[in-house]
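Good morning C.,

I know you're traveling, so I'll keep this short. The sequence:
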Amino acid sequence: MKITLRIWRQESPSAKGDLATYDLDDVSEDMSFLEMLDVLNESLIMDGQEPVAFDHDCREGICGSCDLMINGDAHGPERTTTCQLHMRSFSDGQTITIEPWRAEAFPVLKDLVVDRSAFDRIVQAGGFVSANTGSAPDAHATLVPKDNADRAFAGAECIGCGACVAACPNASGMLFMGAKITHLGELPQGQPERSARVVDMVAQHDAEGFGGCTNLGACADACPKGIPLDVISQMNRDLQKARLTGH
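The tokens, ready to paste straight into the viewer:
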């Protein structure tokens, strides 16, 4: 198949960026999207041109590094990570526009690479749990109801890719933060710092320049791991409770 790529090229954070057009022939529909970009970069290098910079790591859909906006959709037309997206999701002769995440809190570093360290600082603001660590406890030593365990696992599935921020018209990180807060908030080990955690993480979120949530639901629709929208509700309940109790 033949495709035309319109890719955002930006030399540095302070440079002015623009879309560059490239044509690729003989693209296999079995290629992953990143493999297709690898082929493009090989041809650019052979022609003495600068390859396109993009983030990737595991290429197994579990690290969240492959953050690309593809034809206006976070990670592309399928509900998956970019590295797990395949070229069979596109048609022969199609034009594909590839851009970086667009958010004030995710500044562009080069081409398609953005700085997502704001997410790291939000997690750091949440601090640690004070539960003792060490050797593995006996099975069922601390009983957790199944509904709570399932909910905690659902929150823990968040890989921090930032698709929720990219899809949100407000560039809000509430789904990411709600997942992290729900993960620990449903477990006994997360209770001692529960109130302080949500207050500090929300404050850091706002300080980083993320927008507010208006419950459009675009974040949950774009999430490759299917994080439920109601983790935001749980975060808001925790926040209001913390404020009412003086934390």
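Safe travels,
E.
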